[in-house]
Structure formats: C-alpha cells, structure tokens
Design brief:
By secondary structure, the chain is α/β, with parallel strands linked by helices. The protein has one domain: TIM Barrel (Alpha-Beta Barrel), CATH 3.20.20.10. It has an eight-stranded parallel sheet with strand order 7-6-5-4-3-2-1-8. The chain contains nine helices and eight strands. Helix 4 crosses helix 5. It is globular, with a radius of gyration of 17 Å. The longest helix has 21 residues. Helix 2 links the parallel strand 1 and strand 2.
C-alpha cells in the first residue's frame, strides 16, 4: 500500500498542477475531473485515496476490477472502465462500472445495450476515438464517429457523455497537443452538426501530458503514476 502521507502529497501536487494548467488556459479548475487510475494498486490504496477526497477511479480490466471492488466502492465514488472492452465482458462491465470510456465499435454498443437493458438507469459511455490513428491502439477512426454516436444516441439503455482518446506516449508532452486539439475539434464539429448530442466530457491526458490536455480542453484526465507512483 502507498503510504498515506506520500499519497496525500502526490494528490496535492497533481491538484495544484491541474489548477495551474486550467487557470493558464482561462478555465475553472473545478471543470476538470481527476480520474485516479488505480489499476496497479491494491484496494487499500484506493480506499486511502477515497478517504483523501478522490471520487473517480479508473480500471483497465473487468476481471481485475471485479476482484478489487468486493465490497463495492463507498457512496459517491465512481468507477470508470478505461481499458479496451471485449463484447463478452459487457455484462459484468455494465454491472460494475459507472462509466465505460472505451466504446469504439458497433458490436460493443450492441452488447452493452443488451445487458444495460436490465438496469434501472442507462449505462453512461464515452466514444473512444483513435485520433492519432495508431494501428495497435483501440478507438474508432474519426470519420466513424458520427455513425457510432448516432447508434449510441438511439439507445434508451445507453447514455452518451462524450469522447475519449489516448495520445501516443512521446518524450515531449507538447508532441501530444495535436491529438488533444484534434479530439476537441472533432467534438465541436460533431456538436455543431447535432446539438442534441451530449459531448460534455472530453477524457484525454494522462500523467505525462495532462497539463497539455487541459490546455486543449480536457474535462477529465486519467492519472495513475503521478498519484500512486510506479
């Protein structure tokens, strides 16, 4: 388990950096949600982070999250699936996660819609877009976004919340700026074409580049290493 004092210090440093980046961009720091990527830490560390005030946690794998979050997270916490999701894991994912950020293809939309139909509330999702067009990275091509968003929007069991992307891991965070700007531009174009779309969330930026992502309009950043070390 990460020492509470160390975790608290790292949290404070990240929160200060988020505030600085937001203010420099003329934005309200409160408009940026910090998602603590907890995939590499045990449940005790997640509970410590919750006690320190974090409320959003991101996991990559359904099976790992199922094991870690028994019992469930306390009230007010939100669990995000940020890793690639196989259609055959749609049922446990819909039951466990508050937000699935990695929706990127029709078959997955169909699978999530089918299992989400049994829940009281629609399942919140983001459309993952492969802005950088990396061959080995998940996410739909930008030109496929319109049709996929329309499919999500038509479902009474899925609630569209916005877009997500993962930038390439580069030595200079500034090299990731075109990717983040690309997602923002895509969001603006999609919203202009269909104002009914809820695209309020732009999930982009991780430990190495979240300051640049905030400057380009990120409303949600996914930070693991800067919080938990490793």
């Amino acid at each position: 388990m990460v020492a509470t004092s160390t975790l608290s210090e790292r949290m404070s440093a990240v929160q200060a950096a988020v505030a600085e980046a937001a203010i420099a961009a003329g934005r309200d720091p409160a408009d940026v949600t910090l998602v603590a990527v907890s995939k590499t830490v045990e449940r005790a560390t997640v509970d410590a982070a919750y006690a320190l005030g974090l409320r959003h946690f991101g996991e990559n794998r359904v099976a790992d999250a199922q094991a870690k979050f028994v019992p469930p997270l306390p009230a007010g916490a939100n669990l995000h699936l940020i890793g690639q999701l196989q259609s055959n894991k749609a049922r446990p994912a819909a039951a466990l996660f508050d937000l699935v950020e990695s929706v990127d293809r029709p078959s997955l939309i169909d699978a999530l819609e089918k299992v989400a139909a049994v829940h009281e509330h629609p399942l919140s999702v983001l459309l993952q877009v492969n802005i950088a067009l990396e061959a080995k990275k998940a996410g739909c091509a930008p030109e496929a976004a319109t049709a996929l968003l329309a499919r999500i929007q038509s479902s009474p069991f899925l609630a569209l919340r916005g877009l997500m992307t993962i930038a390439p891991l580069v030595p200079d965070p500034e090299q990731a700026r075109p990717v983040f700007a690309g997602l923002r531009t895509l969001r603006d174009r999609l919203r202009d074409a269909d104002p009914s779309l809820d695209l309020s969330v732009l999930s982009m930026g991780m430990s190495n580049d979240y300051r640049v992502a905030i400057a380009e309009g990120a409303t949600q950043i996914r930070v693991g290493r800067s919080l938990f070390g490793g």
